[in-house]
Amino acid sequence: MKAPWNKSAIKAYQIFNWVFFSAMVFVNYLANALPINDKTTGQLSNQYPNLFVPAPITFSIWGVIYLLLLWFCIKQSKSLFSRQADPATAETVSVVGPRFIVTCVLNMVWIFSWHYEYIAFSVFIMVLFLAQLINLNARIHTLTPYLANTSRFTVKAPFGVYLGWICIATVANITALLVYFNPNGWGQSDVFWASAMALVGAIISSYALLKLCNAYIGLAVIWALVGIIIARLDAEVYHRFVVWSAVFGIMIVSASVLAEITGSLFRTKKVKVVGTTDTSTHTTIISNLKS
């Protein structure tokens, strides 16, 4: 039976994944090394002060995200220089590749829109970014039952952590936009907005990780909420409602992570078909995932 992917297209995606990943990392490096528009990403964030901004150490998660994405790029390169395509790799690349490229482009566009202070446009891009990562993780969720455990980690960990962090980043971006348009908080205090945003971010991400069966999403969110707590504890003024909202958010997400891990242990495992005999059902699934 004919494979549901084109060998030439797979090799092209394998190459372009490296190209766009490298470009994304380089642009993010320039954002703070130059910096772009003479302001670092952190300096721009400080222009819109709010209690939702986490401690600086929290942003070190980008290093983890890039290392995980690097691991994905390395693993997806399997069979790049061989004539015979590896079925599991080919089908993963055919589903993930084009969507990963889009996320790289959106990441770079957001950097420029943020650094040139098009705040409203940056929120629009961030929402598209979040939507694309949700779509990507949804496709991965459908694909993973047909992959070996190591291959599952290769796609679920990088894009799960990525989605979790961007969930919180989107909330932070929207918060900055609210401050940009009205520094007075639209009739509500900074404490109200930060507390509400922490809970909203926790609830949305918990729903996403349970829906997509990806506990890695929650790990990134927990880290972000811990960063908010650290920032508030280090501040001159202690805002206990923000801290306790973040703590409650961590409890919600942690419970969701434990529920997902427990559920995965008892979840009925589907028969893995990637790398074995092709079936019409499998071909249909992969074709639908690509569309």
From TrEMBL:
Keyword ATP-binding among UniProt keywords: no
Transmembrane segments: 12-31, 51-72, 93-112, 118-138, 159-180, 192-210, 217-235, 241-262
Keyword Translocase: no
Alphabetized UniProt keyword annotations: Membrane, Transmembrane, Transmembrane helix
PANTHER family according to UniProt: SI:CH211-161H7.5-RELATED, XK-RELATED PROTEIN
Protein name per UniProt: Tryptophan-rich sensory protein
Native source species: Runella slithyformis (strain ATCC 29530 / DSM 19594 / LMG 11500 / NCIMB 11436 / LSU 4)
Source lineage: Bacteria, Pseudomonadati, Bacteroidota, Cytophagia, Cytophagales
